[in-house]
Design goal:
There is one protein chain. With about 325 residues, the protein is mainly α. About 60% of the residues lie in helices and about 0% in strands. It starts with a helix and ends with a helix. Pfam families: PAP2_C.
Length: about 325
């Protein structure tokens, strides 16, 4: 491959990325509020999970059908579940940013993340309600009786709570069980790709990975089976209802110029122009420019019609 070809390809890629960034920034300037609210709620969700850890009371592991069927991975192999979740998370993030590089531009990154964050926040809000309603003894090895991480000592100051000890506080949290946060992210990502992705084989693999993630969560004893089962139907229902309230994402294959978000100012300008045309007796269709004369409260289309009416009288 010649250096000239490489330089030309790199130049095209830079122009494509630059063009995409300018479009996304324009959308972001108008759609930033919901994005910011979604990101802030991620911190609130982490804060709530940190708070319930102070309330956690370790005890005997509850009887669980999944624990009877699936062997425990143990402390040494518990990383398998987290590794798969990391793969799911990074793969989805990279996919949402692929319009910056590839030609297959079916959506805008800003708009799809607004949608994803709306799904996540609605599901996490329900999750906070459930795990504060009833605290179950954690089944994970670090949440069992005798572990120094099973209980948190009372906080010495507000900063100790507000900093939430990320990411250690998330990995070694206890008490935030029903329902699984890992499954919320996994299912939201898979459902989103199911709707807006383009490769059927990848969609099938994504659902298989979601099932594997469910089994690994139970096998690693991060959650009870009920936490995973509730996540499956709750997240799907949340996505179904929230999706109906949100404006459908435009398909970029139709043409990018006509689907950029219209500002409120532009909408008001168009509305004023429409009202002006109607008040002047013109139709909303700009092609209809024939002069009209008003006579006895009625609009007459042309002069010949007026002459005929006067002859008849």
């Amino acid at each position: 491959m010649s250096p000239f070809y490489l330089a030309r390809s790199a130049s095209k890629l830079v122009r494509r990325i630059t063009s995409e960034v300018s479009v996304e920034l324009k959308i972001l300037s108008e759609k930033w509020r919901l994005l910011l609210a979604g990101l802030v709620f991620q911190y609130i969700h982490g804060l709530a999970a940190r708070g319930v850890h102070y309330l956690h009371q370790p005890g005997p592991t509850l009887q669980d059908l999944g624990f009877m069927i699936l062997p425990e991975l143990g402390k040494e192999r518990g990383y398998i579940s987290e590794t798969l979740f990391t793969f799911i998370f990074l793969s989805f993030v990279l996919w949402t940013f692929h319009p910056f590089i590839l030609h297959t531009k079916r959506f805008y990154t800003v708009l799809i993340w607004r949608r994803v964050l709306a799904f996540l926040c609605a599901s996490q809000f329900l999750r906070i309600i459930t795990f504060y309603s009833t605290q179950l003894p954690g089944p994970n090895y670090h949440c069992r009786e005798g572990s120094p991480l099973a209980r948190l000592p009372p906080p010495q100051n507000a900063a100790e709570v507000l900093l939430i000890n990320f990411p250690r506080g998330v990995i070694y949290g206890c008490g935030d069980l029903i329902f699984s946060s890992h499954m919320i992210f996994t299912l939201v990502f898979v459902i989103t790709y199911q709707k807006y992705g383009s490769i059927r084989f990848v969609k099938m693999i994504a659902w298989c990975i979601a099932i594997a993630q469910s089994l690994l969560i139970i096998s690693s004893r991060k959650h009870y089976s009920v936490d995973v089962v509730v996540a499956w139907y709750t997240v799907n229902l949340v996505v179904f209802f929230v999706d109906k309230k949100l404006t459908e994402l435009p398909d970029r294959s139709v043409g990018s110029a006509s689907i950029l978000p219209v500002s409120v100012k532009d909408k008001d300008t168009k509305l004023k122009e429409e009202n002006t045309r109607l008040l002047n007796g013109n139709s909303a269709d700009s092609a209809d420019r024939r002069p009209r004369t008003q006579m006895n409260g009625k609009h007459i289309e042309n002069e010949s019609h007026v002459d005929n009416e006067s002859v008849k009288t």
